[in-house]
Amino acid sequence: MISFKNVYKRYPDGFEALKNVAFTIDAGELVYLTGHSGAGKSTLLKLIAAIERPTSGHITVSEQNVNALKKSTIPFLRRSLGIIFQDQKILYDRSVFANVMLPLQIRGFEKKISAARVRAALDKVGLLAKETANPITLSGGEKQRLCIARAVVHRPSILIADEPTANLDVDYAQSIMEVFRSFQQVGVTVLIATHDVTLLNDTRYRTLTLNQGKLIS
Ligand SMILES: Nc1ncnc2c1ncn2[C@@H]1O[C@H](COP(=O)(O)OP(=O)(O)OP(=O)(O)O)[C@@H](O)[C@H]1O
């Protein structure tokens, strides 16, 4: 489902953020990605989503050769992906419902189908009761759930998340993880970059560890 072979990423300033990275994640797996600050976790997630391109090596995501993708075909890759990054903006001039609707509007989905999908996504993350609320009134954990709902509303087969439990207390972090597990249980492949030791102590899931751009486990 996701495979890296001999992947190197050098940024334009010459900094080598990933060095000879190789791994495979099977369809339906939930995997953690960890490592010190600056180890290359976000870079690796960005390569999966073709937000950044590798300097060399091979990346396959959902049977698509990401290296060979032309700019014009990147939206096709992104259809199979749900992306939860820390800097994603919630729009405070509209409701929770409208925030989750936006990705479907952009993709040109029909209104009636979209509304049903938005409610299904909000239900999945436990936010259906807040659909008419302005996101400014949500707690930190609820905002994170909103971002998850927005990332899954187009029903991606792969979910990638960068530090989704950052700044949340332990109980909230656990409940966010429950949401990710529920997606894995219905067959979604999930990759989560995290420093959260409580999550990493959960031995049910495989952990990939980066150290200075190299995968050490
Ligand atoms: N666009 C860029 N240009 C140059 N260097 C970059 C760029 N983006 C990231 N880097 C560098 O690459 C290294 C890896 O960054 P990355 O964000 O992937 O690390 P990370 O493991 O996600 O760190 P953190 O846990 O702090 O978010 C860092 O040293 C960072 O400064």
TrEMBL record:
It is found in: Cell inner membrane; Cell membrane. GO terms for molecular function: ATP binding; ATP hydrolysis activity; transmembrane transporter activity. One of its GO terms (biological process) is cell division. Signal peptide: none annotated. Residues 2-216 form the ABC transporter domain. SUPFAM superfamilies: P-loop containing nucleoside triphosphate hydrolases. It is a peripheral membrane protein. GO terms for cellular component: plasma membrane. Belongs to the ABC transporter superfamily. Homodimer. Forms a membrane-associated complex with FtsX. NCBIfam families: FtsE (TIGR02673). This is Cell division ATP-binding protein FtsE. The gene is ftsE.
